[in-house]
Amino acid sequence: MYRLGVVCSKINCEKSVLPDEFVSDVITHMNSDHADSLRDYAVAFGGQNNPEHVELIKIDQTQMQLLCRSAGEVVEISVPLLSAVKRPEQLRGMLVAMAKRAREEISRGQ
After folding, report:
1. In sequence order, which ranges of the chain are alpha helices (DSSP H)?
2. CA–CA gap between residue 96 and residue 1 (Å, rounded)
């Protein structure tokens, strides 16, 4: 659940370690330059079969929200990060590691 820059769960409620402007830049960059990685995340970690289009719509220190379009249907899925990031500069490495792992998972499944 999101509220005014605060990430809440049933267990705890804490301020996001990722500033809003940083998150906005990451979302824009991923959607513009890494559509292949977003698709791989959806397939490997989100259980989607051959999505036609995947868009990153939210990301925080523990998960990302992807909007997947396939066969005329649109679904929003939540993909947990491999581990929580504690600082903004850790996010890039996390996304690269997840892209690599997603490609490996997809290759194994073929």
Report:
1. 20-33, 35-46, 91-109
2. 25
pLDDT tens for 2-38 read 333 444 444 445 567 899 999 999 999 999 999 999 9
Q: How many Å apart are CA 9 and CA 18, to the nearest integer?
A: 17
pTM over 0.85: no
Q: Average pLDDT, stretch 59-64?
A: 97
Angstrom distance (rounded) from CA 62 to CA 83: 7
Contacts of 31 (CB under 8 A, 6+ apart): 38, 55, 56
Protein fold of 17-109: Split barrel-like (3.20.180)
What pLDDT score does 110 carry? 60
Q: Hey, where are the domains in the chain?
A: 17-109
Q: Residue 66: how many CB atoms within 10 A of its CB?
A: 25
